[in-house]
Amino acid sequence: MQINQELNKLASILLAKSIIDIYPSTILGESSINEDGFNYSFSLDTPISIKELPKILKQMRKNIDRGYKLTYEFISYAKAKELFVNQKYHLELIHGQEKVAIVKFGDDFFDLCEELNIEKLSQIKSIELMNVAGVYWKSNAKNQQLSSISGCAFDKQADLDEFKKELTERKERDHRKLGNDLELFTFDLLAGQGLPIWLPKGSAIKYEIDAYIHNLLQRNGYKFVNSPVLGSKQLYETSGHWSHYRDNMFPTIDVDGDIHVLRPMTCPHHLLVYQQKPRSYRELPFRVAEHAILHRYETSGSLTGLERVRSMQLIDTHIICTNEQIKDVVERCYKIINEASTTFGVEIHSVDLALHDKNDTSKKFFDGEKVWESAENSLRKVLKELKINFKEEVGEAAFYGPKIDLQVKTALGRIITAYTIQLDFLLPEKFDLQYKDQNGQIQRPVLVHASVIGTLERFVSILLEQNKGVFPLWLAPVQVAVIPVDPLKHGIYCEKITLLMEQNLIRVEFDNSDERLAKKIRDAQIQKIPYQIVIGDNEIKNNSVSYRLYGQQDSHEVPFSEFEKILKEQIISKK
Question: Rounded to two decimals, what is the model's pTM?
């Protein structure tokens, strides 16, 4: 449902007014608007708990009923400093502004706000406070922690009711909840913040994805390499990542005077593979891939389950090619990504063409307007020829070249980049990459960065949210649940067929607990296991199994050999 941003901006300031009514010593932080409504952060003597939200909401409704006159105006920086003399965060936000936009509620409350097309608080017909969370000011863990309250506002009660239903659905799809319920992964502060631990069931999914992408890339001419998880500082200085990406790297490691850093990307390593020996045009395109472990520093406030982590695994690919091969290489990369996306059933939300900003003077992008123009036109041409709808995003390119970003929408409503194809004319120059053309002349190749599924962590979070934790048989962490009617009478047969399935690499769980049969079946359903087989006297007599599919009530009895055949065919076909 579409949020009215202006209405929610006003609601956030109404929240600030109501908080100060109840807690007069409050220091206001910053309000923000997103697809789900509003957030406002506060510094209080005692942090707010979720139990206090009804009291705050009641005060907000009282303030709406009071019918405050809303006044929008610009005031001088000097006057603003006087008004916000006890509001240190607001003083930081307005620092250096010539004019400051404010809104006044009557004569006794004012806050930072651009003019809105809203004259009365009564235009807020329905409002809800959703949650309280601890956040650091400016998302920096070195700063003070504040209480952030989120909420949403509508001009119709029916719209709020519909939105709350949508939020409930999102909660059920949240990969963090599903990952916990299905026992896929965990985080433990003892291990480290933002460092996921894959549990056995989650590891099974991860390894299946890994194997599929490995085979897909091999079928498309990629050779796999292996490079260290560390890189020298000099390597990243040569590539330019040290100057452009330093804030996203972990602190350096001094080993006997040599300075190293945990690698945040593999491209410099893969260029060293290319440089191992002189290259000819006959070897191009030169395709390499790696199952790489990367480390990137993310602020604690930005860590979001598997979606944003500090340690990640990526099947990273790089293609070194001639200028003439760019179109074919990019088109093939797109088709590989599309094949993987189709196999996994991931829905692409949108496609962006990230371009440089020729008016940017911050040195965010490397110099070379003709090179940028040629690269951007190459990507634009491919997208048009493939008849792909896309929008151009000026200023969103990488520092070394333009890129195609394929976006997906998470259960929390965020649009995130799942797949990327990037052109790079800069790194081949920095590493002095060369090849001999058909005339024996030395030429400079082009580098293409391509991510088929992005990081495994983020991709699993996408899968969980889009399929609600219901995986196809080939990808399911547990493919078959074996349930005896009576563990004492039927356990030996269950153990026998469990062993046979394990030997055929089928992921199977034998439930030999003393729970009631109905509960065992229900537990298998809760775990979203694709096949549940129940074994009783009749199945042992006939050397058969009675199975039913996840989400269905009907059961089917077939010989065990036929059941194995059904499983194998579905796993191989990846339907």
Answer: 0.78
